[in-house]
Amino acid sequence: MTRTVADIMATQLTTFPPDMNVNEAIRILLSQRISGAPVVNADGTLLGVLSKKDCLKVVFSSRYHDDWGGPVRDFMSTPVETLPPDMDLVSAAQYFINSNYRRFPVLRDGKLVGQVSRYDILKSVTETPPSFRSSHRPR
Length: 139
Hints:
Layout (H helix, E strand, L loop, with lengths): L4 H4 L13 H11 L3 E5 L5 E6 H11 L26 H9 L5 E6 L2 E7 H10 L2 H6 L4
Antiparallel strand pairs: 1-2, 3-4
């Protein structure tokens, strides 16, 4: 049986609403020790991602302006690359190899259903029986 992104993705995610103040979002990222979180509207539609890199831009731009903060929607990154939940893990690994992203949001019917990371892929592969690993070596 081929394992898919849905089999290994995280489903308990920290998310931000687009109107949340970015200062509160920064505090949450720091307190939870996470590098970013999806920004979703009330019905679960993915609007963007707020990363620590985006937050650094907030901090440094505020040094030149008296305006500190604002809604997350003004600072989040868009567009967001995503993966479908039914993608096989070999294909998902290729996406990670060909990108600089550490994680991808997972969408089903346009709604956020999870997130998969490099860590998730590596952990899954190392927990898979050797027969699977040996038959899927990169060429």
